[in-house]
């Protein structure tokens, strides 16, 4: 009973965070986030990954050749991953996946994410 109450309380707190005007998300985004949080709570996927895991990182962002010339000049200021967001994914063999935005691709940042997930 206490466990269910705690989960309900967590859900209410997350709801309040999403509704908070400072979070600057649209209603559609808030709805999507809320359903993702509910699904994670049902499946219990807030726990750590176990067993054999694999990790990889990539850069997320639009390709310069697919942008309009004016937008490309405004947004692309260098080459490679300079103007893109680094993202790391950790996959548990046989199921769960964790994806998170990382500050950089340095060894300390990557190892910290793996330690937090496992």
Helix/strand layout:
Blueprint: H1 2-19, H2 27-43, E1 53-60, H3 69-75, E2 85-92, E3 97-101, H4 107-117
Antiparallel strand pairs: 1-2, 2-3
Helix pairs in contact: 1-2
In short:
The chain contains 4 helices and 3 strands, in the order ααβαββα. By secondary structure, the protein is an alpha+beta fold.
Features of the shown structure:
three-stranded antiparallel sheet, 45% helix, alpha+beta
Structural commentary:
The chain has two domains: 1-46; 48-118, no CATH class. The chain contains four helices and three strands, in the order ααβαββα. It has a three-stranded antiparallel sheet, with helices on one face. Helix content is 45%, strand content 18%. The chain has helices spanning 2-19, 27-43, 69-75, 107-117, and strands spanning 53-60, 85-92, 97-101. It is of the alpha+beta class and 118 residues long. A hairpin with a 4-residue loop joins β2 and β3 (97-101). α1 packs antiparallel against α2.
Structural class: alpha+beta
State the order of secondary-structure elements, H for helix, E for strand.
Answer: HHEHEEH
- Calculate the mean pLDDT score and round it: 76
Largest sheet: 3 strands, antiparallel
Q: How many domains, in number, for the residues? A: 2
How many beta strands in the DSSP annotation?
3
Q: Numbering strands along the chain, what is their spatial order in the largest sheet?
A: 1-2-3
Structural Rg: 18 Å
Strand content: 15-25%
**Uncertain parts:** none
Q: Give the number of helices.
A: 4
Shape: flat
Helix content: 40-55%
> How far apart, in Å, are the first and last alpha carbons?
28 Å
């Amino acid at each position: 009973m206490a466990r269910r109450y705690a989960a309900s309380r967590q859900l209410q707190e997350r709801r309040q965070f999403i509704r908070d005007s400072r979070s600057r998300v649209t209603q559609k985004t808030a709805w999507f986030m809320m359903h993702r949080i509910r699904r994670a709570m049902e499946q219990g996927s807030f726990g750590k990954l176990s067993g054999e895991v694999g990790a990889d990182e990539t850069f997320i962002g639009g390709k310069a050749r697919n942008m309009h010339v004016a937008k490309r000049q405004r947004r692309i200021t260098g080459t490679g991953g300079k103007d893109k967001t680094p993202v790391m994914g950790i996959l548990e063999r046989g199921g769960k996946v964790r994806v998170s935005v990382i500050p950089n691709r340095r060894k300390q940042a990557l190892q910290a994410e793996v330690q937090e997930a496992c």
